[in-house]
Amino acid sequence: MAKSVDEFNKKRLRSSNITVVISIALVLFLLGLMGLILINAQKYSDYIKEQLVVNAYFDENYDAKDSVKIAKLEEETFKKVQTLAPVKKATYISRSMAAIEAKKSMGIDSDALFEENIFPSSIEVALKPEFVDPAKIDEAIKEIKSVPGIIDVKNDSTLMVDVYNNLSRILKWIFGFSILFLVLAVVLINNSIRLKIFSKRFIIKTMQLVGAKRRFILKPFIIEAIILGAIGSVIGLIALGGVWYYFTSQIGSAFVQDNNQYFWLVILVLGVGVFISVLSTIFATWRFLKSNVDDLYYS
């Protein structure tokens, strides 16, 4: 009879542990998935911002005999523009290249409608994402325009402001959902741990009544919480990696784009899983340590 009771208790314990691990894994999977979406949304936002370029123009009026001198000056100006703080990438566009681009945009193959090199040479500047901010873009344009050799800088400021505001709004929503998932992770993992500790409330009280110190009673529960939290986190991360790999392979995108950010996401998920498990275990166990024996039947 005693053996059957022991076997029943062991099965119930294993079932309880499996339930906690699965709960932790599922919750952290969703939390990690939201983290991946947030990371890649930020990258995609930065990518779009970098496509919003400004054009810095050189003087188009100069004597043909000074072409070599002008070419050297434009090269020096281009190098200076590349070193400016707001500049992410700069591309030099010569007069001949500008003419080719103009003909492509107009769908013209003939040179009959164009005089030779009627378009001025210029520099196409992609700004760093933080300088696409409407509050900073004017300063960036002024800084580019102050470089000797640049006579004019043009950009579609209305488009830039609209894109920036829309992207910022989307990122705020994604960030808000990430915070919500973090709160849900705390609540759900906490509830799973509390139910597990609740099933052992009589054991906890018995140990206390026979003289065991609170620290001694807490220790095995904390160790178990660390193990369960770590196992649940690892399972959640494995599932997350599999889903993310399948998704990125389907859309043809690289699986790993920034090792550093993914590394910190893994650390965050592991830390959240273990930390919440341990914290919930301490609070749930402490509750029964402070309660009376009669309260155990009504908790």
TrEMBL record:
Keyword Endoplasmic reticulum attached: no
Transmembrane segments: 20-39, 170-193, 221-247, 262-289
A Pfam cross-reference name: FtsX_ECD
Membrane topology type: Multi-pass membrane protein
Cellular-component GO terms for this entry: plasma membrane
Residues annotated as domain FtsX extracellular: 54-153
Primary location recorded for the protein, binned into one broad class: membrane
GO biological process, one term: cell division
Localization (cell): Cell inner membrane; Cell membrane
UniProt keywords, alphabetically: Cell cycle, Cell division, Cell inner membrane, Cell membrane, Membrane, Transmembrane, Transmembrane helix
Highest taxon above the source species: Bacteria
Domain ABC3 transporter permease C-terminal: 176-292
Similarity annotation: Belongs to the ABC-4 integral membrane protein family. FtsX subfamily.
PANTHER family assigned: CELL DIVISION PROTEIN FTSX (PTHR47755)
Purpose of the protein: Required for cell division and gliding motility.
Protein name per Swiss-Prot or TrEMBL: Cell division protein FtsX
